[in-house]
Write a structure and sequence with these properties.
Number of domains: 2
Helix content: 25-40%
CATH topology of the largest domain: Rossmann fold
CATH class of the largest domain: Alpha Beta
Number of helices: 11
Low-confidence stretches: none
Bound molecules: adenosine-5'-triphosphate
Keywords: ATP-binding, Nucleotide-binding
GO molecular function: ATP binding; ATP hydrolysis activity
Pfam family, one: ABC_tran
Radius of gyration: 22 Å
Order of helices and strands: EEEHEHEHHHEHEHEEHEHEEHEH
Protein name: ABC-2 type transport system ATP-binding protein
Shape: globular
Oligomer: single chain
Domain ABC transporter: 3-228
């Protein structure tokens, strides 16, 4: 199972929204897809979900073009904030329907999840609250057990306890049935512990694709007197600087050698970690 982008471009009319993307994901892991509003996350996911075709280049799923490809479509589930306005059936009967045409769908698991998310009643999906409709998307996405399962911000309407239940179920089910799971989200600090790998896209380009651990280990804050911090930061990639009186704090991006750590301690500098949330903000901020 894999997803590959090769010199991938996507235009809407004259607007190019994905520019020359190249990446590959091929392991059953949880991938966090991050990007600012309008970065192109949904556009990219809609190509993987075979909702549209690239303008040029290739997007391959299991080495095949997914668009209108029955084999691939059975392997991929893309859940997004669907409009359920015309949906007059309750969740319990919709999952039975889905079970008839989705190969990997696990009806029993779907029914257990409906119970956990309190979606068992006879109310039509269109009459459920927004948060409950989102929870229903989560149920369908999890129970689809698709080798490639994508959640495009479906959980945004859910309250904190429901989101927590989703994260727990996701980790539990991923352990039992490993698959490629892509989570596109703005809730970076809440969800970062779920990610094995992180892909950040910025203005339609892949900014980085790394393991969560490598990425986070590369960000650090350095705090101390202005002169010492400036000396230490010279020649390094500085993502952010703040100063209060003579005290300065910088966010650096890159590996530190043992010698550099020693020199920081000799200069009386405090070195601390940076969260993925902060790194994401710094890495994608607009240059003033
Ligand atoms: N159907 C469409 N027609 C024209 N332009 C579109 C269409 N869908 C998206 N766009 C544009 O493509 C760009 C990328 O949008 P996309 O929805 O992929 O971003 P996103 O990263 O998912 O954003 P958000 O975080 O706000 O959901 C934006 O500039 C958007 O205005």
């Amino acid at each position: 199972m894999n997803v590959k982008a090769i010199n991938l471009h996507l235009n809407y009319g004259r607007d190019e929204v994905l520019h020359d993307m190249n990446f590959e994901i091929n392991e059953p892991k949880i991938y966090g897809l991050l990007g600012r509003n309008g970065a192109g996350k949904t556009s990219l996911l809609s190509l993987i979900g075979s909702f549209r075709e690239p303008t040029s280049g290739k997007l391959l799923v299991n080495d095949e073009v997914p668009f209108e490809n029955e084999n691939v479509m059975q392997e991929v589930t893309l859940m997004y904030n669907k409009d359920f306005a015309g949906e007059s059936y309750p969740p319990s009967s919709i999952v039975k329907d889905i079970n008839r045409y989705r190969l990997n769908f696990d009806l029993e698991y779907a029914q257990q999840l409906l119970k956990k998310f309190k979606l068992e009643g006879n109310k039509a999906v269109s009459k459920l609250s927004k948060g409950k409709q989102s929870a229903f998307n989560v149920v369908v996405g999890l129970a689809s057990r698709s080798p490639i399962t994508i959640f495009d911000e479906v959980y945004l309407g859910m309250d904190a306890p429901a989101r927590d239940l989703f994260y727990k179920e996701l980790l539990k089910d991923q352990e039992l049935h490993p698959r490629i799971i892509i989570l596109s989200t703005h809730l970076v600090s809440e969800m970062d512990y779920l990610f094995d790998e992180v892909i950040i896209i910025n203005e339609g380009k892949i900014l980085l694709h790394e393991s969560y651990d490598d990425l986070v280990s590369r960000g650090l804050t350095v705090i101390g007197s202005k002169q010492s911090v400036d000396d230490f930061a010279k020649g390094k990639e500085v993502l952010n600087e703040e100063q209060l009186g003579d005290t300065k704090s910088v966010t650096l991006y890159g590996e530190l050698s043992e010698a550099e750590r020693l020199s920081a301690s000799e200069l009386g500098l405090d070195i601390g970690p940076v969260s993925l949330h902060d790194l994401f903000i710094q890495l994608t901020k607009e240059v003033e």
